[in-house]
Amino acid sequence: xxxxxxRWTLGVLLLFSGLALSSLVPGGPIxxxxxxxxxxxxxxLFNVLLTALGLGSLxxxxxxxxxxxxxxxxxxxxAVAYLVVYTADLLxxxxxxxxxxxxxxxxxxxxxIALAIPMLWLTAQxxxxxxxxxxxxxxxxxxxxxxxxxxxxxxxxxxxxxxxR
Length: 165
Hints:
Largest sheet: none
Number of helices: 6
Oligomer: single chain
Number of strands: 0
């Protein structure tokens, strides 16, 4: 596949993956299971991971489209993380909750798996770094600061919502 088309496809898959995961914030319309029985520290850690994966996917989509060096290996890692998180949740490997998974949650997690598989395949094919753009050129410091504030807000909201507060 043409490297530009490959980067564009990966960028779109990452964008949709990040948006799909973002729709699953605890306390939102889709993820409404009760996690109050899980230790707050564990919930916080899990929400940090998921927020980093969701927002990181949006950042990675820009990075891969701009030709940032080493972005393909990061995309591969994100795809593996999506597969592990969604598969573990669908198979019930996470601590069980008193409330069942909604159909919407199952559908989004299946979609997440369906998006991760082609990301793995495309990155495994290899992707030439034509531009080798340094990361510092891609993101303005104000954008990085705004995303940091957004990430902290999402983590706080999702952790409190998961604890039932």
